[in-house]
Amino acid sequence: MGTNSYAKKGDILSRFLLEREKDPGCFGNKYLRDIILNFVIAGRDTTAGTLSWFLHVLCRDQRIQDKIAREVREATSTGDRQDAGGVEEFTARLTEDAIGSMHYLHAALTETLRLYPAVPVDVKCCFSDDTLPDGHTVRRGDMVNYQPFAMGRMKFLWGDDAEEFRPERWLDGDGVFVPESPYKFTAFQAGPRICLGKEFAYRQMKIFAATLLYLFRFEMWDRGSTVGYRPMLTLKMDGPLYVRASPRRSIGN
Length: 253
Hints:
The protein is mainly alpha-helical and 253 residues long. It has a single domain, classed as CATH 1.10.630.10. It is built from 10 helices and 8 strands. The strands form 4 sheets. The chain has a two-stranded antiparallel sheet. A hairpin with a 5-residue loop joins strand 2 and strand 3. Helix 3 packs across helix 7, helix 3 packs across helix 10 and helix 4 packs across helix 10. The chain is globular.
């Protein structure tokens, strides 16, 4: 495939291949392989898994689901009674300003990540001797493990309702999203190693979630069913998530 073919494509891999033709020494096969592997692991499984857990918790609380759907409708409304329309009409109104004004949706996704972090257990390796903020000494080569899954359920961090799914904990009195310290909410890590794709992931999830909730209402296929998890590199559901989707003709339906 030649340069012109790569230039016509808008995907990230094609952009890297185009740069490699300009400067073959900077983008070898191993480098490109590592880039693609990183996108597959960090940019696909994590986002897809979070959206699955997001739908699960919304099926358990229709009040929250309807509140998000109402916010999405208000954020994308043009004042025309014909706003309803289909997916193409809706996505045309899903602008950056509209997405940015969806604070409750942002809070609900963040609350999902608090309880169901995409990476449930993480580890860091010390490159040099250091002292942690609590005074604990670590040596070069030591491994430090931390568990975002358990941390998101600690009452001394999040209060007595730590195990409750409550998006409101992320909003101020005016309904504006207020982030927590990344050292408390570690879903995207913190400091120099904070996830480079954090904002992209939020935008991707908000677009996907807003479109689905604008068009459909979701409920568990079997209301008595339970959903387990498999603690792997990413937090996967232990089996498929069976939901029923019905057209959302109005908020509350």
